[in-house]
């Protein structure tokens, strides 16, 4: 296994450990606040396999402070964590406790509204964590972005985006009436989920592009093929030339802006590299701009499709805009970013129930793959905040065994003023756990198929 694999794996483990801890801490805090006894507080599961005749499993670490009712520990199975609360039916399936007389320190003895707060505590904590992370990011790093209006060449689009109706050079204006300012995850989501996107074409015409349903999966397929659905067009401006390579021999210099290759327009990096690959091992005429004047040079392209140049950094080409945030200004911005991500994810979630959505579900491998190849704190926190949003939303779904399932039964109790029976709750818990295990197997099975079986078959 490569170093990249271990770096991604480490980021995934650290991120999930933090998210699970914060989630379970939410249940723990509210339980203790309402004087409900917490029997266990574990990061990861301490499931033993002795019942299957296997002497393996249990805790990696556990301890119980003096005069405490709670055992703390780290389990061996890194699929989550749990906070075992006295007097409730949860994943531990401790039904014997429920047969005993009700005690004042138990979950079941508390008013429904208190039990409701205990159950949603994890979800609230995850959502608050995302807001805190986003606020911390803008406070520490600020925001630096490139407005569409400052991208002189407009945007470039994948082949699938061009089939929809976009054209290289288009400048996005609005998505279903919402003004578009600069490319980020939020605005990409707006474009992919809109019905109509208006763009400025050729600097003068406003054109409407009709976006097909499930365009998200089109962009996802592009990403798998290492192609961006939409990105900034980067002009080819020479920063350095390599000794004895085609560019230096042809006299190209720092600051030259290459415009065409063999009379074919190549104003941006994507088209430029495509033309170089089409002219490998040949000498071609290149038009370039130097000091406001157009000139040409015959440049040799090597067998690798290179001419030996280093490109100018985009920060030195475009006019970026930046915004700094003080402590108090960062908080509302963090709230805004957290709410926006939650809305975006909820909008995407409806596609999970489609054929394409089921096929795109991923497990731990898919989650780990979104982390960068090298440790980058900005990327780590940004991804962790997004995963915290996902964890909050997924846990509030009304599926038995999830927090949302418990919340559903508590709302039933509040509305109809009677509790569901213990037998019903036990069976619902089993059904919910079966559903979750099936989803877990399906998602991770998709990963195995994508990265092991499919390449082998191809």
- Helix/strand-derived class? alpha+beta
* C-alpha Rg (nearest Å): 28 Å
Share of residues in strands = 15-25%
- Helix % is 40-55%
Distance between the termini: 22 Å
The 3D shape can be described as elongated
How would you characterize this protein structure?
The longest helix has 36 residues. The chain is built from 14 helices and 18 strands. It folds into three domains: 165 residues, no CATH class; 85 residues, Pdz3 Domain (Roll), CATH 2.30.42; 76 residues, PDZ domain (Pdz3 Domain, Roll), CATH 2.30.42. Helix 3 packs across helix 9. About 2% of the residues have low confidence. The protein is elongated. It has 458 residues and is an alpha+beta fold. The chain starts with a helix and ends with a helix.
Short summary:
By secondary structure, the protein is of the alpha+beta class. The protein is 46% helix and 20% strand. The two termini are 22 Å apart.
Topology:
Elements: H1 3-33, E1 38-45, E2 59-63, E3 71-75, E4 77-85, H2 95-98, H3 112-141, E5 143-145, E6 155-157, H4 159-164, E7 171-175, E8 178-179, H5 185-193, E9 196-201, E10 205-210, H6 215-224, E11 230-232, E12 236-241, H7 246-250, E13 257-261, E14 264-265, H8 269-278, E15 283-290, E16 293-300, E17 309-311, E18 321-323, H9 327-349, H10 355-360, H11 364-369, H12 377-395, H13 403-416, H14 422-457
Parallel strand pairs: 1-3
Antiparallel strand pairs: 1-4, 2-3, 5-18, 6-11, 7-8, 7-9, 9-10, 12-13, 12-17, 13-14, 13-15, 15-16
Helix pairs in contact: 1-3, 1-12, 3-9, 3-12, 3-13, 5-9, 9-12
